[in-house]
Amino acid sequence: MSTTAAPVFSVQGLWKVFGPKADRVPEDPELTGLEPAELRTRTGCTAAVRDVSFDVRKGEVFVVMGLSGSGKSTLVRCLTRLIEPTAGTIAIDGEDVRAMDRARLRELRRHRAAMVFQHFGLLPHRTVLDNVAYGLEIQGVRKTERRERAASVVAKVGLEGMEKRRPSQLSGGQRQRVGLARALAVDPEVLLFDEPFSALDPLIRRDMQDEVVRLHREEGRTMVFITHDLSEALKLGDRIALMRDGRVVQLGTPEEIVGSPADDYVREFVRDVPREQVMTVRTAMKPGGCGAADHPDALTPDAVVADAIRTVARNGRPACVVENGRCLGVVDHERLLGVVAGTEQLREAA
Ligand SMILES: Nc1ncnc2c1ncn2[C@@H]1O[C@H](COP(=O)(O)OP(=O)(O)O)[C@@H](O)[C@H]1O
Ligand SMILES: [Mg+2]
């Protein structure tokens, strides 16, 4: 993942207010300062997204997480103007989304930013293959080509052999794979997921999460993934925007959110996270090289603390953290257990 490339989406000061004379709300400092309930009684308006800014970097999985009603769906729908923003700017690859005309918007939604929904929206009378090819059909791709492309995507999401089935002959997990394949078939620059796995059984859900991780690893496709599930967010996200009442209360890597919560709300949210599964040895290590020429049993900086605990316990001695042949620091059992307990100073001076 590159962090220097230009962002795919760039969002600045985004507002979405539902209700009468919604436009006045973002402009009026007296109204923007109100709590959601008070804004509602005073004006009849709901501010679903409140002054939100972020970039989605090329190749990352950007997760938007928050409880039900926190504004996640509204936010992601604003990105392609399925919902019209009230204020703020949105750019995709530098192009102003709010200035797009209808044709350009259609092109944006069909080719550049494909959406995968919770309710798969499959066409019941069509086969799996034809459902997957549907997006290509809308694009005007010729029949033989779209069937070829659809077949290869069907295989990619693990549905080989099921091409001729109808949606009613599939399990929930398989249907979601069809939905995913349909979005992938148009080869979009960015995939937008709105809680696609929330309705699935836990085991199937885990399969689908693994599928997303695999697709991301293999293709490096940019994804915006919405979920209310913290463990899903931590598993999938390169970075997570945590929403509360329409605002982003913290934006950071899973490790930053778990290790350095921005406020009490976030701290409470992540309280039960198994820290050893999220925190890395880069954070846990005592910085500074060990001086040795070679490093048996070296850990990579991105190894999680749980793995490091196993290594240190097995060897009965501290382990070096090595990147490109260079020792960055050392972890011992005290530092590792300190991270688990949440007592380790996170940003100790090197
Ligand atoms: N069309 C609408 N009209 C009025 N209020 C809406 C509309 N859509 C969503 N809301 C309100 O906006 C807030 C955020 O909703 P939503 O974006 O669906 O949250 P989430 O996806 O996080 O559950 C909620 O208070 C919801 O009731
Ligand atoms: Mg939602």
UniProtKB/TrEMBL annotation:
Keywords: ATP-binding, CBS domain, Nucleotide-binding, Transport
GO molecular function: ATP binding; ATP hydrolysis activity
GO BP terms in the entry: glycine betaine transport; response to osmotic stress
A GO cellular-component term linked to this record: membrane
Entry's transmembrane regions: none
Positions of the ABC transporter domain: 34-270
Iron-sulfur found in the keyword field: no
Pfam families registered for this protein in UniProt: ABC_tran
NCBIfam families in the record: proV
Stated family: Belongs to the ABC transporter superfamily.
Name of the protein in its database record: Glycine/betaine ABC transporter ATP-binding protein
Source organism of the structure: Streptomyces brasiliensis
